[in-house]
């Protein structure tokens, strides 16, 4: 090594490396203004490892549940991404923006005070259940290898194809009149809602489509994700809490077995079954049917594998070998 490369800059004292966090999930309450990548980068430093990933992004303006995987738990994230999600949100009717949310530029405004509760209920009902949703043009969906939002920012007109999503709940709570929403003197309506939906749903597209269906336009002004699958905001930790973790103590994570219990049906293995799986041998089917992933736990309570039935046998989809 050259002397120049071996020198230590006096203004950058070496910091002791944090101890590596155990394999597991970290459920974070993402603050507003942070990107999901920002949170992952912070978690890598706090967990003492670069092996950290997330299960589905949240826009910078949104807050709430962001599920991170640390170490071998990153292998579970593919399954967590596909889980249903719950949000609380505020939709402003009467104002349309370029991004379908509050961060975009105003496109049009209309007086929304004539929208009645029955009309609002009918609009929500039309967007409940299995629907075809056109994602917002500024989404992260790739078009010919490039993110849609990047193409929009470059001045292109981007039209995305509709995709099937399911809105299992779309509940309206408080409705408030906003007499002068943007200084124009035109009144808008703020509508507080709760949405439970399938993976891949865009809540700002719901806001856009609700306003469009009511003939006044609409966009999203606030969004909070309160649940991802079995992981709720009540069990999430703030970044302030995580940053206050002692520097010489490994960051606490949700162990692999507990993380699996929150996502999959559980099969308790016998000693013989656990041994057979460790040798790569087949074991009898779980009886849950094809297409259902089951978490297989050893008699000691450790996550051995994720299993899927294939005829009379259970086939490992993922095997979690002991950490070395």
Structure description:
The longest helix has 12 residues, at 36-47. Residues 1-13 have low confidence and may be disordered. The protein has helices at residues 3-6, 36-47, 77-81, 117-126, 148-153, 203-213, 239-243, 256-261, 271-278; strands at 24-30, 52-54, 63-70, 85-93, 95-97, 106-109, 129-133, 142-143, 146-147, 163-178, 188-197, 218-228, 231-232, 254-255, 266-268, 283-284, 293-297, 303-310, 313-319. It has 324 residues and is an alpha+beta fold. Helix content is 21%, strand content 34%. It is built from nine helices and 19 strands. β12 (218-228) and β13 (231-232) form a beta hairpin. Strands 1, 2, 3, 4, 7, 10, 11, 12, 13 and 14 form a ten-stranded mixed beta sheet that branches. It has a five-stranded mixed beta sheet with strand order 15-17-18-19-16.
Key features of this structure:
21% helix, disordered N terminus, 9 helices, 10-stranded mixed beta sheet, 5-stranded mixed beta sheet, alpha+beta, 324 residues, globular
- Round the mean pLDDT to the nearest integer and report it: 88
Largest sheet: 10 strands, mixed
Strand content: 25-35%
Secondary-structure content class: alpha+beta
As residue ranges, the low-confidence spans are 1-13
Shape: globular
Question: Count of helices?
Answer: 9
Q: Helices and strands, in N-to-C order?
A: HEHEEHEEEHEEEHEEHEEHEHEHEEEE
Fraction of residues in helices? 10-25%
SS elements, strand count: 19
Determine the N-to-C terminus distance.
Answer: 31 Å
User: If you compute it from the alpha carbons, what radius of gyration comes out, rounded to the nearest whole angstrom?
Assistant: 24 Å
């Amino acid at each position: 090594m050259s002397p120049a490369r071996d020198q230590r800059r006096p203004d950058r004292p070496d910091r002791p490396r944090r101890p590596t966090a155990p394999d597991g999930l970290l459920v974070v309450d993402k603050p507003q203004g942070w990107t999901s990548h920002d949170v992952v980068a912070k978690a890598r430093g706090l967990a003492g490892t670069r092996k950290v990933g997330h299960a589905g992004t949240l826009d910078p303006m949104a807050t709430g549940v962001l599920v991170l995987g640390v170490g071998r738990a990153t292998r579970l994230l593919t399954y967590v991404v596909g889980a249903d999600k719950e949000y609380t949100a505020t939709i402003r009717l009467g104002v349309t923006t370029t991004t379908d949310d509050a961060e975009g530029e105003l496109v049009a405004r209309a007086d929304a005070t004539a929208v009645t509760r029955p009309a609002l209920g009918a609009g929500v009902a039309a967007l409940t259940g299995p629907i075809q949703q056109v994602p917002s043009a500024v989404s992260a969906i790739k078009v010919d290898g490039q993110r849609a939002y990047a193409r929009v920012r470059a001045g292109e007109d981007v039209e995305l194809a509709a995709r099937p999503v399911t809105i299992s709940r779309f509940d309206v709570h408080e409705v408030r009149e906003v007499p002068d929403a943007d200084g124009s003197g035109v009144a808008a309506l703020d509508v507080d809602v709760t949405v439970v939906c399938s993976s891949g749903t865009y809540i700002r597209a719901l806001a856009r489509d609700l306003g469009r269906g009511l003939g006044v336009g609409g966009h999203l002004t606030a969004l909070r994700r309160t649940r991802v699958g079995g992981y709720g905001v009540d069990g999430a930790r703030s970044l302030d809490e995580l940053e206050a973790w002692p520097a010489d103590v490994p960051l606490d994570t949700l162990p692999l077995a507990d993380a699996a219990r929150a996502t999959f049906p559980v099969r308790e293995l016998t000693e013989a079954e656990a041994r057979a799986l460790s040798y790569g041998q087949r074991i009898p089917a779980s009886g849950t049917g094809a297409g259902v992933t089951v978490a297989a736990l050893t008699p000691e309570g450790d996550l051995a594998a994720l299993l899927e039935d294939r005829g009379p046998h259970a086939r490992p989809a993922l095997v979690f070998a002991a950490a070395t």
